[in-house]
Every structure is written in C-alpha cells, then in structure tokens.
Amino acid sequence: MKNSNIYLFLLLLLIFIGFLYLNRVTPLTMDDFSYSFIFSGTQFSETERVETIYDVIVSQYNHYFHYNGRSIVHTFVQIFLGIFTDKIVIFDILNSIFFVLLVSLLSIWIIRKNRLLRKDNLLVFATSLIFCWFLIPSPSTTLMWKTAAVNYLWAIVMTLAFIILFEWVNKKKDNISIFRLIPLSIFSLICGWGHEGISVGVAGGIILYCIIKRRYITRTLLIISLSYCLGVLLVVVSPGIIGRASSEMMDTTLLISILKRIMSISLIFTTYKLYATIIFITIFIYLSFRKRLYVKEFIKNNLLLILIYFSIFVFQIAIGFKGQARGAIALEVLAILMLIQMIFDVKESVKQKNIYILISIAICCMLIEYVSVAISCKQNFDCVQKVISDYKVSKDGVVRSPFPEKFINARFIFWEYYFDSNQPQMRRFSQYYDNSKRLSILNRELYDKLYINDVFCIPENQIPNSEGFYTTEDISCIVYPLRDNLFAPHVKIKYEADIQYISELYPFNIILKRVGEYYTTDLRNGYILKTDHGNYMLIEKIDKTATFPIRLSTIEVL
Prior knowledge:
alpha+beta; three-stranded antiparallel beta sheet
C-alpha cells in the first residue's frame, strides 16, 4: 500500500516537471501582450501597463462592460501578465499544477464513483494522464498559451471541482451547517464565473438534473447549484459579452444562421477533430445496438455527466463552435471522463495483465511524443527570442523569419506570425516591446531577395496576365512595386471559394450550392514594405476575414 502511494507521488511529480518544462519554453503570444496593458474605455491601452492591483480592478471593470464577462479568469491573467510579468515563472509553476489537478480530478471522480481500492489509484491516474495528453483539444491554446490556459485549463479544472463537490453533496443526502455552506457557495459562484463556453453547458446540465431528481434535491445541493448558476449569469449578462454575441451570432439571415449552426456539427469531425467526442459517440451508438442493458445502466449511473455533456453539446451547436477547437474543451473533457468510466466498467472482464500491457504501450508512445514536443517547443522558443533580439536592434521593425518551415511536432505550439504589421499578433508584440516601430516578419526569400537585394521582382516571378504583380509558391503574399515610392494604388481583387476545403468542412450539397460560386471583389491597399531601394505593396493571397476560406483569383490595378 505504501509503495502504491510512493509510485503515485512520483507519477504526479513527473507530470509536474514535464509540463513545467513545456511552460518554460512557451513564449508570450497574442493576447498575452494585450492583457499586460490596462483595458481603458473600450479597448486595451497601447502605453499604460498593468502595475498594481488597482490597475487590474479598473481594467476588469471596463473589460466587463465593453468586452466580456470572464472577470475571474481575466483577473488572474492580468495579475500574472501585468504585475508579475518579470516573474512569469510563477505562472508557469501554477499552470503546471493546474494540469496535475486536471489529471487528479478526473481520477478522483473515477475512484470515488467506482469505490476503487488504493491499489488501483496508480492505474486510474496513469489512464487519466494518457487520455488528457492525447485527447485534450488544441493543447497549444488550451494548455500552453498563457491567456488561453487560464481561460480554458484553469476554468475546466474549477468546473470539475464543482462537479465533484455537487456529487459529494448529492450523496450526503442531508444538509450541512451554514458555516460550511457559505464558503462552498462562494466557491461554487467563482467556479461558475469562468468561461461561458464551459459554464453555460454545465449549468444547463445541473438544472436538468435538479428537475429530474427534484424529489431528492436537498437544500444544500440547491443552494450550491444556484450559486454556480449565479456565477454563470454574471458572465453571460455582462454588457461586453452581449455586445460581442449580438455581432457574431447573427451575421447573416436567420435561415442561413440556423443552417450554419446545424452544419457546424461537421466541425467535430473535420477542422477541429474532437477525437474524444468522436470516440465516445461512436462507442455509445455501437453499444446502444449491441448492449442496450449496459447503456441503460451507464446512463443511470452517470446521469449527471450525460446531462452536462448533452447541454454543452447543444450550447456549442447554438453558438456554432465559436472559439475554434479550444472552445469545445468542456465537451472533450466530459467525453474523456466518460470514456475512462467505460474502461473501468469492463475492467473486471479483461485480464489484468492485458490492461497493464496496453497502459505501458500508451505511456511509451506518450513519452516518445513528449520528446518530440519538447524539442519543437524549445526550437520555437529560441526562434521567438531571436525575433525579439532582431526586432530591438532593427531600424524599422522588419526582421528575417527564423522559424522553420515545419516543426517536428507543433501540437503544443501556438505559432502565428505575419509579414503584415497590422495583424493582431504583430501589433500587440510591437506595443509590448517598442511602440515606435511595428514588427514585420518576412519570409526568408522575401527578406533576402526583396527587402535586402531587390532581386525578387523579375520576369520569372511575374503572375501571368497580371502585369506588375510578382509571387512564388513559397511566400503567402503578392508583391507590387510602387514605382513612385509614395502612394499605394487601389487594386481590384477577386477571391474565389476554396471548394475542396469547403467540401471537407461542410460535406453537404445544400451548403455547396450556396457557396460554390461565392466570390468577393474588394478595393483595398496591402501592407506597405519600405526598403532602402524602394517601397512595395504586399497583398495576402488568402482573405482571412471571409466567412468561408477563399483564395485570391485575379488582381489588377484600378
């Protein structure tokens, strides 16, 4: 028994150390830069840094009324990225602890639910670790990117803690003293006041459960449930989030808006690849036909999880899976939890030896991938440090890209840098390090042949039937030399739908009929690149602002 506890402690310690290293080689990115500044008025300041708790309070007050209502998580974000920006190791340590907590809470649920013996603890924790490592969606943005980690990893850990609390109170079948109820209610409220993409669905599941089991709901259970729902309400009724939702949810006619949300189910299988959900739904449907008695028993024993999962699923469809794959972290974590439960439901019917063999193989695969992830994260970190050092000594913020064309394993890397200094990543980086110049990272070919030597605009690189425009397959933009070195002309750009991509994303004829001939014509200027030998206009080949992926088809100067 004592050896089992020692092994479990060593496992958790190894998880912490391994994850801490990944955190240490994860640089600041995207919103990390913004949240180090005070949110004043309706946007982040470009000059006023967060330096005190008072700055955080003022910033979050404005944030709540003009951006979104995730005050709890964003307070943590601004404390670490503002006040402790020079001691970011504190965040790295805490974030590593939260990943350990994620694994631990999943394991605690299984152990308590199945009343497992202590000798099984190591097996449960190892299984939870394996599932989290391989199935957590978009780990680069849910676990590593600092702002997003607090929004998703920390928020889901708080939610799991509340669900375990809910189940514990539910099993007690009696009320607890007011002195214990008050702190539990405050804790529940804080857990609900997290990320709406997580907490709204959980609240829906809790409400459904309380309605179905209304005869058995105690006063204590009702109070902590209402406290959690109050926290959720504080998020969703914030003026900032209401404003964002009204502008995003109905971006077209009601019919098309509804159609898009129905079709967004295909995102689970295509773009976002929510593997835990795919596996769980597949197994659940299979068992519904082959082992109906087991399915009924599973639903009965896991009614709370089923209702929460269903509510999260419905909510995600309603918002069209906004927030990309990371927005579905609650859906995936609940699927992971129920998959682990299924494994331990059949544990007794499988030879113990075979279980340990499978777990050992999975751990070996995880360790091999961890090495590739660690190497790539360190390589990315070094590249970012190179960008920072080159940027600081550059005269105009233009630097040569040090990033490789492809990392060994980029699953834990959030990498999004552009040549256009007006892109959010570029602009926020510039505000954080030096407001006097905008960061612009050029592809190596553009930097060497265009920015330095002026040998890019040659006949071989000219676009057919588009005089004056140049490009190659290796760069993401089109180059137009500015003859007078002063003004960029208006250009007529025609984008056409990327039908192949759309057919993979929305494999339904009704969508393709509406989108197949889609194109946009626009008048716009590109990004102006100034060099010692002349100026150039750089134009994106892909329009990132379009509802559907569309690529540049033709271009001409007006």
